[in-house]
Design goal:
Keywords: Acetylation, Annexin, Calcium, Calcium/phospholipid-binding, Cytoplasm, Phosphoprotein, Repeat. 71% of the residues lie in helices and 0% in strands. It is an all-alpha fold.
């Protein structure tokens, strides 16, 4: 499959209607609204099947034929959300934006989210058309009205965006990129207080291509994405506006996919947001939004609208959506590039992994051992002291404390902790006191003992650990349980799932780079086993073995290339194809491997989110990840968590746990993003 040309194809879901006859449509609409009641089906069918240009011609024909204003008649005949949607479609895009902004700043209070969405996402040309439309429709100056309704740095950035003067030159100066990176760094991270003017000037005026390079260099220079600095340095509506600008610079369709998801997730639907986006993007980039939505949220936009709305309103939204990507089970050929680019980004990303727990300065194991003994001596237990010491020492330092405790008091610190604390706090604290490999070995043992097996825990650990970590786990398991990990897995699992786990448990993943020819062969094997290859070859048993070998033994850089070649070959993303074509524990194991290859911190962020969402908390998963990743990449996990779920890990933990367990988790979390 050739990679689709960027910017060459029309990406809207609504097209000019073939054989369009404006007089005929005007007559049909008049008939649909004549007499008692109205034929809403006929109205939505016509209006959602015509382009905006054609709708304007229908308006003119309607007035010529009947001397009446079509929009006024539609407002009279329709009600509620359906009316708002249909009337929005009838306005020219700039006038629709003008109406949304007028509503956002009229009356008591301001709809800042609406202002942010529109002004952060429109092009220079769209902005100029918006200003002119506002002036024409309301005989008022848009800039003056925004100044009158907003304040501070938020107001200043809105006014800058409103000028529509963002640079549009694709030629980027490397020197200016470096200068902007330095200016942003000095304006935020290196400054006492923040120089907001620098953020406003650079993010409000530089070209998109330039800013994308600035963001890349900023990450390399500072070790953190620009979004993290914005969250740390700015606040309130100004922070939200700047984050929206950054998202639109990176990918406007992804920004709108995220807005649509948030408009429909949870209880209730933000219908104004849903309508505004579906109307405004239907002739611009709805196909890209759909594609990203499906990739990011593992469900189609169509299916989410279908489950979240009803009646003619739902039918109209689904027409604007333009199709159900889940029904076809494949990507648009033109948009497979989105998934391809995600793997490309994964391949070039060189983000330094950082934990939240670091060795304590001025570490004194003698003092810590005495403090812990005092906290557990006598009547009652001083949990705060135990939490404070153990969560603020590295694992190596905790092992020194254990030795010192035994030397001083002739007692086993782990045994004393077990007798003094209980429940979730005990599992967390005792987990932190164990060497990492022994902790993982214990988690694997617990996953396999008793009636039933915790397959998710087995997958999480074995699919994400490095070769060195796997080898250490094998040694720890043998030492602690006098049995090999392979034997334990063999006796507790079966079939292909057992073979996958045993393969992962050998710790023999290749550690070199990619091999393009081999990657193409491996991608062909994947296409054949997932039953989407044009020319299947070989017997299925042999293919299954080869596919398992590829996923379990190839290096991460090589697998990223395999997954890119898979997309080029088939138009499918390997993760979604595995989910669709496979089932059970085998599917879950392969998906975990793919997600770990793509972005391991994001894999853990997703696991943490799922452990805390809905009714009840999965404390075991929460504890296991917080303990095992605290010195490896928990800081990266925090960043992925807030980026995907729009709330910090700290907030999620705070809202879902309590007591001393909460205190210990927050200490491990290491801060509020």
């Amino acid at each position: 499959m050739a990679k689709p040309a960027q910017g060459a194809k029309y990406r809207g879901s609504i097209h000019d209607f073939p054989g369009f006859e404006p007089n005929q449509d005007a007559e049909a609409l008049y008939t649909a609204m004549k007499g008692f009641g109205s034929d809403k089906e006929a109205i939505l069918d016509i209006i959602t099947s015509r382009s905006n240009r054609q709708r304007q011609e229908i308006c003119q024909s309607y007035k010529s034929l009947y001397g009446k204003d079509l929009i006024a008649d539609l407002k009279y005949e329709l009600t509620g959300k359906f009316e708002r949607l249909i009337v929005g479609l009838m306005r020219p895009p700039a006038y629709c934006d003008a109406k949304e902004i007028k509503d956002a700043i009229s009356g008591i209070g301001t709809d800042e989210k609406c202002l942010i969405e529109i002004l952060a996402s429109r092009t220079n040309e769209q902005m100029h058309q918006l200003v002119a439309a506002y002036k024409d429709a309301y005989e008022r100056d848009l800039e003056a009205d925004i100044i009158g309704d907003t304040s501070g740095h938020f107001q200043k950035m809105l006014v800058v965006l409103l000028q529509g003067t963002r640079e549009e030159d694709d030629v980027v100066s490397e020197d200016l990129v470096q200068q902007d990176v330095q200016d942003l760094y000095e304006a935020g991270e290196l400054k006492w207080g923040t120089d907001e003017a620098q953020f406003i000037y650079i993010l409000g005026n530089r070209s998109k291509q330039h800013l994308r390079l600035v963001f890349d260099e900023y990450l390399k220079t500072t070790g953190k994405p620009i979004e993290a600095s914005i969250r740390g340095e700015l606040s309130g509506d100004f922070e939200k506006l700047m984050l929206a600008v950054v998202k639109c610079i990176r990918s406007t369709p992804e920004y709108f996919a995220e807005r649509l998801f948030k408009a429909m997730k949870g209880l209730g639907t933000r219908d104004n947001t849903l309508i505004r986006i579906m109307v405004s993007r239907s002739e611009l980039d709805m196909l890209d939004i759909r594609e990203i939505f499906r990739t990011k949220y593992e469900k189609s936009l169509y299916s989410m609208i279908k489950n979240d709305t009803s009646g003619e309103y739902k039918k109209s939204l689904l027409k604007l959506c333009g199709g159900d990507d889940d029904a076809a089970g494949q990507f648009f050929p033109e948009a497979a590039q989105v998934a391809y680019q995600m793997w490309e980004l994964s391949a070039v990303a060189r983000v330094e992994l950082k934990g939240t727990v670091r060795p304590a300065n001025d570490f004194n194991p003698d003092a810590d051992a005495k403090a812990l003994r005092k906290a557990m001596k006598g009547l009652g237990t001083d949990e705060d002291t135990i939490i404070d010491i153990i969560t603020h020492r590295s694992n190596a330092q905790r092992q020194q404390i254990r030795q010192t405790f035994k030397s001083h008091f002739g007692r086993d610190l782990m045994s004393d902790l077990k007798s003094e604390i209980s429940g979730d706090l005990a599992r967390l604290i005792l987990g932190l006191m164990m060497p990492p490999a022994h902790y993982d070995a214990k988690q694997l043992k617990k996953a396999m003992e008793g009636a039933g097996t915790d397959e998710k825990a087995l997958i999480e650990i074995l699919a994400t650990r490095t070769n060195a970590e796997i080898r250490a786990i094998n040694e720890a398991y043998k030492e602690d349980y006098h049995k090999s990990l392979e034997d334990a897995l063999s006796s507790d699992t079966s079939g292909h799932f057992r073979r996958i786990l045993i393969s992962l448990a050998t710790g023999n993943r290749e550690e070199g780079g990619e091999n393009l020819d081999q990657a193409r062969e491996d991608a062909q094997v994947a296409a054949e086993i997932l039953e989407i290859a044009d020319t299947p070859s070989g017997d299925k048993t042999s293919l299954e073995t080869r596919f398992m070998t590829i996923l379990c033994t190839r290096s991460y850089p090589h697998l990223r290339r395999v997954f890119q070649e898979f997309i080029k070959m088939t138009n499918y993303d390997v993760e979604h194809t595995i989910k669709k074509e496979m089932s059970g524990d085998v599917r879950d194991a392969f998906v975990a491997i793919v997600q770990s290859v793509k972005n391991k911190p994001l894999f853990f962020a997703d696991k943490l989110y799922k452990s805390m969402k809905g009714a009840g908390t999965d404390e075991k998963t929460l504890t296991r990840i917080m303990v095992s990743r605290s010195e490896i990449d928990l800081l990266n996990i925090r960043r992925e968590f807030i980026e995907k779920y729009d709330k910090s890990l700290h907030q999620a933990i705070e809202g879902d746990t309590s007591g001393d367990f909460l205190k210990a988790l927050l200490a491990l979390c290491g801060g509020e993003d």
